[in-house]
Amino acid sequence: MSQEYKQVIVVRTDLKISKGKLAAQVAHAAVSCVLKALEQKREWVMEWLKQGQKKVVLRVDNLDDLLKIYDQAKAQGLPVAIIEDAGRTQLEPGTITCVGIGPAPASKIDKITGRLKLL
Fold this sequence. Notes:
The protein is an alpha+beta fold. The chain is built from 4 helices and 5 strands. Helices cover about 45% and strands about 25% of the residues.
């Protein structure tokens, strides 16, 4: 098999939000990242789709840790999206909830997120 492709969503655990709200935020990150990746690295998206659209959801403790992940992914040229809540339900408008990375080669993402724990 050629190299593995995946998408990673990193979420903050310090926000006490419902499972449904969290699922919606993760979905926003997944979709936003795919749209960015189609513009940046269409071939990565096509290979990821062929491989079954692997997604992994990881966690960080707070906003600072999340922003570090975002900055590292951006610096490496990976498709990355930061998700800010609209503030219609449980959070204040503009609250940053998660970051999506990829689809991209797993080896590139793992350099940034490999130490993080699963959600």
